[in-house]
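Weekly modeling sync, notes
Attendees: S.R. (lead), two postdocs, one rotation student

Agenda item 3: backlog of single-chain predictions. S.R. asked that every request posted to the team notebook include the full sequence so nobody has to chase files. The rotation student volunteered to paste the first one in as an example of the format we agreed on. Action items at the bottom.

Example entry:
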Amino acid sequence: MAEYACDYLIVGAGLAGASAVEGIRERDPKRSIAIIGAEEHLPYDRPPLSKKLWFGKKEVKDIFLHDRAFYDQNGVTLFTGRRVVTLDAKSKTAADSHGDSHRFEKLLLATGGVPQVLPIPGGDLAGICYYRTLDDYQRMRREAAEGKSAVIVGGGFIGSEMAAALCICKLKVTMIYPSAHLCGRVFPESLGLAMERLFQARGIRILKGRKPASFERKGPRFVVQTGGGEKVEADLVIVGVGVKPAIALADRAGLATGDGIVVNEYLQTSHPDIYAAGDNARFPYQAMGQQARVEHWDNALNQGKHAGRNMAGAHESFTYMPYFFSDLFEFGYEAVGLVDSTLQTFADWQKENEKGVLYYLKDGKVRAAMMCNVWDKVPAARDLIRKAEPATPEKLRGAIA
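Predicted structure, as returned to the notebook:
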């Protein structure tokens, strides 16, 4: 057992954690930084795991946020392949899974999220992939040979992207999800049904309005039994049914939690020297006037950097409005705001369900916008949302596109 000490300790070696290093070094070029991460890899970008890595547009070496020299040059000590198991907020110490102790002055919890595991018979069966990490990608890439079959459970971001990726790689794909149409949380019905038709035209079988009831092994293959009575055999099973915020460490340390680690506008937790950022942080989303937790790349990037600056004394309110994006065959989009398919929507299509802008309205005001195959309009969408002016179809036609 060893004892270490640092000025800034970052728990979590993902995008938020790595971005915090940049934020700290903008204000404090000298004091010591340490990062503790559960994976063996250097911090990397997650979006390519379900997008560009499968299409040959990126290689694994391209997804790392920085090389080893960056951390060395910035005086960062990296502890990879280990987790923080206990945190004592009062004494400002953390113990990791190797039995080592770490003392700190300021701490960032950038623990992200953990995949939801299905609570059904066989839900924890060996070989089922709850897709999240680079190791998951590398295993699936080895197993996803042309002509094999795959069941994708979940019709949200990960499910739809992985179904498209495996289809492009010439696997036989079946999707199972409970919603009435694809990406039911963000797509209005007309677009969700149009995307289903696109997927089906590519040969993807869709079993919607269903949930898996059990997973079993049949030799080297899996058998998925649905609640609707169907049985589907496949070589691979990938589950993408969402993540839950990794808050157990914060809970045990007595920090305020709920749907995430509760932070104020400066990204401080209930302990003023402990911060949180990324998928695990429930923060005041000031542009929306409500508390929120955002599980997207752009939020982790900007929130992590902002937390780093504040840890180093900036004391700046977090007012950023993050965006997110996806690519599904030839359909791509960027979206910003509180994208929620239960809100009223107005579609300003240039080509219906293919190119245009979707506006999400609440109380007659724009709360979010999704730019479908329309690019470089996120700043304009942010401005429109921040203005919070009464919106009518006449005002919204051509407002962004």
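Discussion: group reviewed the output briefly. DSSP finds ten helices and 28 strands in the chain.
Action items: rotation student to repeat for the remaining queue; S.R. to check formatting next week.
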